[in-house]
Amino acid sequence: MIRVLVVDDQVLIRAGLAALIRAAPGFEVVGEASNGDEAVALAAVTGPDVVLMDIRMPDLDGITATCRILDGAPVDPPRILVLTTFDLDEYVYEALRVGASGFLLKDTPPERLLPAIQLIADGDMLFAPTVTRRLVEAYTDQPDAVGPNHADLDVLTVRELEVLRLVSMGLSNSEIADRLVVSEATVKTHLNRTMAKLNLTSRAQAVVLGYETGLVRPGRVVRI
Fold first, then answer.
1. Which position has the higher pLDDT, 92 or 140?
2. Cα separation values, 12 from 9, 15, 50, 57, 185, Å
3. Which of 76, 136, 197, 198 has the fewest CB atoms within 10 Å, counting from its CB?
4. What pLDDT score was predicted for residue 148?
5. Would you give the distance in Å from CA 90 to the centre of its chain?
6. Which H or E element spans position 52?
7. Euclidean distance between CA atoms 150 and 152, whole angstroms
8. pLDDT tops 60 at residue 149
9. pLDDT in tens, 78-105
10. Computed over its alpha carbons, how large is the radius of gyration of the chain?
11. Which of 90, 102, 43 is nearest to 70 (CA)?
12. 156-172 pLDDT tens trace
């Protein structure tokens, strides 16, 4: 059973999402929140597996709420799936940086919602690698973006660095396994260790870090 917390300041959208989830077997709506403050409080009480988080809300926005939810649950925190109107949204990028696992456009067809939640609950990113790169490149290529800094990467082994680079390029675990000629389980082990060493909470964060540290350059395919 996948436990879901629905957060949106628009009552019709929130009610529609909750109704769709409740009607599906294997899913449970553990709460509905109309703002970020309510989301943080409900997440602490209900312990959801996935939070559908509206990103643009008055008072406490989805980015700050995401930070507080993840910080408040250091052991097995919920996955955050951001709800947004535009795919190239600076707020989405910031949400990924603080630990969200992906994003879902509000005009996504209803039949894609449940598979999206399932995907996030399983620990994957929701969006395709091309979307990941397009989103991250759009904001890391700005003049005030964080410049290359490999200091944080010094704690990684050579193989962990290879895995992080390939993740940052948008490859899936199976694609990385094929590239490095190892098992998919081995890739997962290296990635989990990498994320633990770098204090990352999601695969999306790993992608962003790869760009911000200069491990992967916008518009350039890195070959190993």
1. 92
2. 9, 5, 20, 15, 42
3. 76
4. 47
5. 14
6. strand 50-54
7. 5
8. no
9. 999 998 887 666 777 788 888 888 888 8
10. 17
11. 43
12. 999 999 999 998 887 87
Neighbouring C-beta atoms of residue 67, cutoff 10 Å: 19
Q: Are residues 123 and 14 in the same domain?
A: yes
Of all helices (H) and strands (E), which one includes residue 37?
Answer: helix 36-46
Q: Supply 224's token pair.
A: 């190993």
- DSSP-based three-state secondary structure for 126: coil
Three-state SS sequence of 155-177: HCCHHHHHHHHHHHCCCCHHHHH
Pair 81, 120: CB distance under 8 Å: yes
The CATH number of whichever domain residue 180 belongs to comes to 1.10.10.10
CATH number, domain at 66? 3.40.50.2300
Q: SS3 of 80, please?
A: strand
Which of 88, 105, 127 corresponds to the end of one domain? 127
Q: Could you tell me which of 107, 101, 111 has the C-alpha nearest to residue 50?
A: 101
The structure tokens listed for 13 are 């959208």
- d(Cα 93, Cα 150) in Å, to the nearest integer? 21
Tell me what the mean pLDDT of segment 100-112 comes to.
86
177: domain range? 140-212
Task: Give the pLDDT score at 87.
Answer: 65
pLDDT for the residue 44: 94
Place of tokens 């397009």: 134
**Structure tokens, 10:** 């628009």
Per DSSP, the three-state class of 188 is helix
CA distance 187 to 175: 10
